[in-house]
Amino acid sequence: MPKLTLKTPTDQIFMIGPAYASRLKKLNIFTAENLLHHYPVRYLDRSLVTKISKVQEGASVTVRGQVVSAANLVTPRGKKIQKVKLEDDSGTIEATWFNQPFIPQSLKPGMAVALSGPVDRFGAKLTLKSPEYELIKPPPRSPLIHTGRLVPVYPETTGVSSKWLRSRIKFLLDNLLPTPDFLPEKITVKNRLTGLTTALKNIHFPKSSQELESAQNRLKFDELFLLQLEALITKKRWQEKKLAHSLSIDQEKVLSLIARLPFKLTLAQNRTLKEILSDLEKDKPANRLLAGDVGSGKTVVAAAAIYVSFLNGFKSVLLAPTEILANQHFDTLKTVFAHTPVKLVLVTSASKTSPQALRDSDLLIGTHALLFKKLNFVKLGLVVIDEQHRFGVKQRSQLLLNSKVTPHLLTMTATPIPRTVALTFYSDLDLSLLDEMPPGRMPVKTWVVPPQKRPAAYRWIDGQITAGKAQAFVVCPLIEESSKEKLSDIKNVTAEYNQLSQVFSRLRLGLLHGRLKSLEKKRVIADFSQGKTDILVTTPVIEVGLDIPGATIMLVEDADRFGLAQLHQLRGRVGRGQKPSYCLLFTSAKNPTTIKRLKYLESVDSGLKLAEIDLKLRGPGQLYGVKQHGHLELKLASLSDTKLILKTLRAAETVAKKLPSALRTKLKSRKITTVAPN
């Protein structure tokens, strides 16, 4: 057996082997270090150790003694039960199990054992009902880990129980610790943190609630500290890059572009535009995130930055995650730049653009297909990435690596970002927040619709459309959480389309999903936009980028499958005209907590407030949809803990400029590899 280290694969750890290693992969456990950091989700208090003569009915206790007898029995009704009699120096007690015939083989007469469980009355006798058991080894013995203490309960999977995990983790604690502490002493002292070795011992097997709290505080600190340190290092590396093109701001021409718009900019748009233009004037490459609700006017703000790049003689690139969104941006920006010499080119997998047109363009707008074009990016001044969390790190970096220069970078998202999330996951970016909607936008009236009200809801929708007042979206969730639609999703949305074609037999329905060919997508969207279809049945592909002013009803099937922020983005697809608009959230869920979560949408219009609610209820992984590959989850820390987030950020700032060697080693061992700013 090779020497045990933190990096030892699980199949090479004593008493694990290939079969258990395969099961552990389902828990994202691949190495000894992963197993050490597989933290309990709760603890059973089995710390009350009592003499057998003192046990009381209804109590949950641990007793220690010697096995007197053990047997398999069959009741008159044919049930198989197991009985073990245990004695200590104060008396005897029976323990009873059901359908566990191996018990008498495990607990033989004469063995010293500890039993933990509830005390019940069986006839005139007190008995321990299905207790946990643990053999007591003779001196020098290891401390008990399943009984007689605070007992850890872990996230489990088929074939991997908490009892098994406790024994394997105890082996690692005995054979791997002490482990080097990567936190500098000045940080542990200032923040009153326990050492890493002590924290790891006490998170798994605390002797008291105080030891447990101290361990949790240290490990929560580590999670947030490392996230923020990585982000600060990314930001530092980005700022150290040499900016090939500094831009000057021709204020008069920028104001002229804005004056030609058919609307006035909001105060928030003016403020964020000022922040972005200030970035473009600096001699360091900008790396800013522009966040705002659907319809808050992000594209127009980005257009002004693109115009500045053009006025300085440089190209810009706008990268969108879907063809629909790329087409939407192309149409919007073509209108914005209608009275300027800016040449726009759309690049998607379906578009056929000549090499000459690409070379002559001032603004390239496209999907990830842009990444695979052999483009000359020598004159690249600005890269704009929309819905940046939908691109993988490698995808985003490819565009920047293809460029021979370092451009300014502006990313945009309609996913609301609470302050605590901005301070952790996005602390490598400067944040601009569009927290104001253009005047005239009416709130979308929202209802949660249970199954019994579905027929009435259908009749109401039919009436609204028949009266000429509405068009409607019907959105079906993806069957499995994924960044791409699967064949099963297409079958699901197609079945919904067929069913609704019968429900709304007098109306015209369209079907949209990501697997349609580009020309077919364009036709379906054009028909809906021009009022040739009344209802568009679709997957969440329309979550970003579909602007249909005539659509006033959003119906979401299985709404409980979506996060609040995502539902808010979906309902942002309606209410873009002057008519009253509505959002119907269909759900078959009966869980009161689920219904309560959905009902927040009935009273809360702010995407930011909804995101903060969902953050507390479901956590960051759910809030931001599909977990990106290599993304390290927070196991203990909470993104609602503003105080700890600020504390860890300050600590990270003290070491980011000059990393101690232990911290450098720790960061290299982590799964996140930052190849470009996120």
UniProtKB/TrEMBL annotation:
Q: Name one GO molecular function term.
A: DNA helicase activity
Keywords, in A-Z order: ATP-binding, DNA damage, DNA repair, DNA-binding, Helicase, Hydrolase, Nucleotide-binding
Helicase C-terminal domain boundaries: 468-621
Coiled-coil boundaries: none
Instruction: Name the domain of life.
Output: Bacteria
User: Among the record's GO biological process terms, what is one?
Assistant: DNA repair
Domain Helicase ATP-binding stretches: 279-434
| Pfam family membership, one | DEAD
| PANTHER family found in the cross-reference section | ATP-DEPENDENT DNA HELICASE HOMOLOG RECG, CHLOROPLASTIC
The molecule here is called ATP-dependent DNA helicase
| Organism field | Candidatus Beckwithbacteria bacterium GW2011_GWB1_47_15
Q: What does UniProt list as this organism's lineage? A: Bacteria, Candidatus Beckwithiibacteriota
